[in-house]
Amino acid sequence: MHPPKQVFVGLTEQCNLRCPHCFQRVRPRSAAFQESKIIASIESIVDGAAATIIFYGGEPSLFPRRMVRIMESLAHRSRLAFGIQTNGSLLERVTPLAHLLKFVSISINATTVANLNLRVLTDLATRTTTIGRFIYDGSDLFPLIETTARYFNYVYWQIVNRSAPSFSTLHYRAQILALIQLMFKGAGTPLLIPLEYVNYAIRRPSTTCMPLCGLGTTLAYIDSSGSVFPCDELAYATAKADAATIVSNTFPFCAKCHLLNICRGRCPAVLAKHGPQAYQSYCALSRVLVECVRDFCTLDSREPDEFYFLTEMMP
Q: N or C of the chain: less Cβ packing under 10 Å?
């Protein structure tokens, strides 16, 4: 197995907010934080290769010194970069670390927006790359993106991982069309991933083949005890099968699809945790996304850059 390009490090399972959709709230607690084991696990699986270490939780900004100590311990690894996924409520603790971070990804939903200090976010955006990570659970996504997008370099959204989506494909289609209209507003609009990603793929079908997932290949997850898993959701799922087996079981659902070279697909954790019916529901949402971009998005597609590949691509 090649060293992963992204290593997600769960610094803590504690969080200062209670977002209703968060799967972290219902998973079993792991062992206590073990810094030395986390550092050893990172060095072992990265094995000298280039990689991005992404701190998250829980809420990692509750423990900024943990991040600093890990980054300082790995400072001799010149091919490592660091990022953080945060709910944004404690950005004043993140800003002093900005010079050490390649990016800051902020989860955006009704709960986090109410706790977001836009003045601090504006300052942070001058120091490092900021990514708005919007969580879509069926509530209206467009107003949140329209009002906060200007604070970010990149915007993407992730559908809540459940046994069944809480909204229809017609509702999702309306959301996508509204976001496409936002793209047409021109200068000042950040890169809207996955709209830009799918647009690029459609315009260059002969050179694009989206992988199903980085599960067990380009990404890895280390929990707060230092244990390594193929991804965080499978670490706590009842399905603890080998990553290669999970991916091979997922692929038959996609192999004959005419959108295979365009669609990044839904993560195999959906199939492993919830079964084929859930996977097919998310597949339908992916098709809506691709069809809307194909039919209504006529912009010249911009070349993907490194941050395209640092997002967790979802429908």
A: N
Structure tokens at 218: 């380009």
Tokens of 37: 């084991």
Nearest of 214, 219, 244, 215 to residue 51 by alpha carbon: 219
Q: What topology does CATH give the domain 6-310? A: TIM Barrel (3.20.20)
The pLDDT tens digits for 197-255 are: 787 777 776 655 555 566 656 788 898 999 888 777 776 554 445 666 666 676 676 77
Distance of alpha carbon 22 from alpha carbon 244, whole angstroms: 27
Q: At what angle do helices 195-203 and 276-296 cross, to 10 degrees?
A: 70
Distance of CA 23 to the CA centre of its chain: 14
Rounded Cα distance, 4 and 217, in Å = 6
Nearest to 193 by CA among 101, 113, 301, 114: 301
Residue 157, pLDDT score: 82
pLDDT digits (tens, 9 = 90+) for 108-154: 988 899 999 999 999 999 999 999 988 888 888 888 888 888 899 88
Alpha carbon distance 229, 214 (integer Å):
12
DSSP for 289-301 reads: HHHHHHHH--SPP
The whole-angstrom distance between residue 256's C-alpha and the CA centroid of its chain comes to 26
